[in-house]
Amino acid sequence: MNNKLIIIYILTAMMFGCTDNDISSTLVGYINPGDPQLGEPEGYAGSQTCKECHSAKYELWRGTLHNMALRDPKQRGRTGKAIVADANKNGVADFKDGLDLGVDGSSSDFHQYGANAPILGYSPSRDKCTVMIGQMTFYVDRLYGGNGSFSQIYLTKLDNSYYVLPVKYNEKSRTYSAFRPGNWYKSNLEPLYTPSYPTPVFLGRGFDSFERMCAGCHNTGIFLKYDDETGEYLTGYKELNVGCENCHDAGELHSSLDGGKGVGGIFNPKYLLDGTKDGLKKANEVCGRCHARGSSTATLGGGSYNWFEFPAKLDESGAVISFGQGDVLSDYFTFTTDPLFLWGYNSTDDSFITSRGNHQQLNDINAGAHSPDSGADPSELPTCFTCHDPHGTENDFDIVDSITVGAVLIGIDSDNNTLCLACHASKAPFENISKENVANITDANTFTSIKTEVTKHTKHPYAPEEFKTSKCVSCHMVRAAFSAREYDIASHTFHIITPAQTASTADLGYTPLPNSCDGCHDDTTDSAATKYATFTDYTDDNAVIPASHEQNDSWRETYHKLFIALRGDGDCKTCHLKNSESVQPKANPGCTTHCHGV
User: Fold this and answer.
1) Average pLDDT over residues 26-43
2) DSSP 595
3) CA 211 from chain center: how many Å?
4) Using one digit for the tens of pLDDT, what is the confidence trace for 493-512?
5) How far apart are alpha carbons 418 and 405 in whole angstroms?
6) Dihedrals φ, ψ of 383, to 5°?
7) CA distance 70 to 256
8) How many angstroms separate the CA atoms of 16 and 92, rounded?
9) Do residues 454 and 429 lie in contact, with contact meaning Cβ atoms separated by under 8 Å?
10) Second label for 165, Cα 20 to 30 Å away, from 109, 256, 338, 466?
């Protein structure tokens, strides 16, 4: 961005800020240089330089969450807004409304703090949003999220570091939840920070900073040091967000030598794929180093919180080195074994059902059906970027637009199963579906043949686009992890999660693990143990649809379509019992006998 455009951006942004909830704008995709305390790293050119030769990729990437997660409080995200918090839908940011989270009905997480609960506010003199905790007022100096899909959290700068305030706004539900409240409150629920102890430096809590916990994944070209005097972790970086060089390595030399494959040390993750298990692991780890939960092998500074929540190790001189493309992740990072973040964790072999926490996709992949250690041919297993394009697409979650298998180009839409069938067609249990069939799925005859084969596998009606029945990801990518709310992150083990596994998590003190049946067969009234006691495990190949449901193919064609459309009204009541807002096949003796249990 040239200087003139930067000036225009700044002047425009100054007109709005905490009050811009009713203003839409196209000012998205700005490359934020941030304010690195240690300056910029050597050898990095910046994504703006990459644009000169890779303009098409650049234009897609700059509107992605990789580039738009962290923002200045006046910089708009993908929604066209900066601050998105508007729980009462009045068109004004909740900060401008002066929302008290201790009494607000959408913020029950904070009621226990009483008068010390966060109070949102706005400072006209500084044109900044504020969060008051006890006697202390903190200014919102940076935003994270608020791009329409998940949540928004708020960072304040104290001393030389940034700290994530304990307020999280959940975009879909328009509710608030507490984010790491232990960083702001004592065990007696009193505020940590007071006029006598106003900043983390006073309390020796520099380890709570964004720089220690998050910067290694959210900044491009990061380097860091520990300040022995203040206890702060200080960072330098090229860009505030995930830029081109985060995945392709430092590009200054590459650019100066006029580019070309591998010139100047530039790196492309796909060239790690050599048909071996190690090659597949390394390719996944380029993405997975940040889409994973654990701790660094590097330790730096005093106290017990002297490690990082991102991959890093110490070199021979004691300097901190961040993970580099093609490195071995285990040299830099240890995956979490905390049961809080892993459903059904078994300490005897470190196994688990699926992740409970967000940004744990690599944890899941390594424990699942697509793992390099699964025993499958590594040359036939997908990588992260088989399904997702980190440069961005128009699809949710940056799902790829197409996949080429051999000589067959397959257009991709996860709603019609082409995303999964692109790889799984022609292999058991879909050996009767060809790659050409998948590429031509919109043809009526082809669709019918695919429908027949998939229905044999699922033993359920085929309506993936309309009702999510027999949709691959509905069963194999259960939303089992939490981010903005329970549960909004898909499992990446790709295993069927059974009702029995849900029942095994019923006494953990929080909502039990969702399973592959829940998408259609939900019940908010029964206890978990009762709810799943009568369901059949549909991974059993001997489970069959009863003859009464097979007549004229009526069940597959209309029965469950009617069930979902009517939600318990009309004809569905003859077989299903209405409980609350859901309809339960298990409540009818005939259903449980034939299909859903004994």
Assistant:
1) 85
2) I
3) 20
4) 999 998 888 888 877 777 78
5) 12
6) -100, 175
7) 29
8) 12
9) no
10) 338
